[in-house]
């Protein structure tokens, strides 16, 4: 019987959460390193051995850092798959792989067609804290490109700073990922946080996509304009991951990724009456041929969850035997970076209740004239189990900063109707779940959760704002009303807010009114807690934490140019000092 050490045994037992593997080398066991002589091919292959993409067509990625590991990911081109061939992976302290830390092997049957030839290696417990490593894979004599990953600092370990890139809403059909070239090349970034809409389920929905780029068009295997099944979702993930700038950014950094609605379907929620996915715009809800079938929608959620788990390097449990999406997996999770940052990534789509004012596409889910259900205490964005997990996680944290990875805008966003009347602009966001928002603010304060920072995506807008308990209280010196700050990162490529308004407004009068009401000047006048509002540009942002402050910088990059050389421009820079409740604006000169 082989003499496996404890870590090797645990690796073999990882089948429920990641791809099972066997460690063949660790730094405390001086075995031979990886070599072509040690792992010969069974037979010559009709491919270019100097081209990694001939086998590893979607390159490599890493994610979900802990103090002792990361998740590694790769994909094998289906034409090159041989169930009798094992895959080898290698982790080293240097890019030349002379300082080998780990080597392991995955049997061919572990990444077959049932997993769409994806490999997810969980190295938790194998690596040193707060360290950079380099990794690569070898299959059938071909090496993948080399990736660089980083583990987290141990809980309580002193850390000078943590800098995160913030991304969201990267509709492949709506532009190019040149901004990711800046993210990839920025060595000051420690980790990348993606807040959702990593893929879009739609490939020709006129509310979101006008398809201006011939080389970015997508045709799904099902022939529908939206994903209908597992094959469609897998196809979308493969298409998105084929982008060279996205590949480069995922090779160079370790990512933490959440989901929003478009990983499944637009404005999705959970229909608790039918115990199925709420998918108000999907053919399974709107097309008579499908009959509003609860089983089809429940399966759609499972299919999207499975494809996401296969293609995202996330450390999540998969319960293969479970047919209910709430039992199949759980993606909300916590990350801790030394003594500095406690990051909690939310899932605000899987468990949320339906929209408070109905599912009518514009006047129900976004601008609900005359709706009186906004303060309903039964409305929930997170669900009870996730709510309790979140508060317990933050209350137990000893880190200086508590950060929330959140999908939709948490603050109030109202539009002025005159005579001091205000109307929520988007009840698909937290304005539609006001009672739970107030509960969360009270819990944050009552548990002495200080330095509360919310990072948000979804609205395709740059925004910097104060987080408050009572937005009607305009007294800046009422410190008990100041809970934290919120920074919204813009869409990477997805259609801007104004474009969406133009596409969805029911008539010209409503469109013109909303365009005026959501201009930056009108928004800031009606919502004085909002310090910055820009919904016309695209790009990304960064947030850096130190003992004394956190600093958010918003960058603009042209999504219409398929190049990594176009100009990057810093649009705004805000700093929240640790000992002060408000944010302050800083100069962007030099950034």
TrEMBL record:
It comes from the Bacteria. Transmembrane segments: none annotated. Residues 59-151 form the Phospholipase D N-terminal domain. It holds the Pfam family PhoD_N. PROSITE patterns: TAT. PANTHER family: ALKALINE PHOSPHATASE FAMILY PROTEIN (AFU_ORTHOLOGUE AFUA_5G03860), PHOSPHATASE, PUTATIVE (AFU_ORTHOLOGUE AFUA_6G08710)-RELATED. This is Phosphodiesterase/alkaline phosphatase D.
